[in-house]
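pinned: reference chain
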Amino acid sequence: MNQTHIHLLITHLPIFASMLGGLVLAYSILTKSNQTKIAAYYIFIIAAIGAGIAYLTGEAAEDTVENIQGITKNLIEEHEDSAIFSLVSLIVLGVTSIGGLYLTFKNSSLTRKTAFVILFISFISFGLIARTGYLGGQIRHTEINSVNTTQHQNGDHDDDD
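pinned: its structure tokens
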């Protein structure tokens, strides 16, 4: 297994972990459960670590696919640019989750407010990482692009008349 394989395997972790962590954290806020908040924060920390690994293995993945016929450099660059924003947002999410863990363990009066801030950051992070994953999928999964291209060529649109 090389870095390209690791990149392809690990890229899904931050996408699903940021979404799952957000759902768990929202549930913890509704139920006022500190144990569930702690679980959500651990999920976010794992998501941040996964994003770091995905980013670090991205260059090797780029080297693997950049010379394959049909792969455009623009798609790779757009994915790479998006990945930087995703990485930063997930690092912020992971670091604030560490702060949230600390405040929760200390039973601080800021625990609930911090949970709302972290939930907000998780929504932003999920949006960014989901877009990055979508852009990455377009690099090799031509069926993603062909569906959009075929609809536009045939004049088929998803208009609600």
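why pinned: DSSP finds six helices and no strands in the chain. The domain at 3-154 is CATH 1.20.120 (Four Helix Bundle (Hemerythrin (Met), subunit A)).
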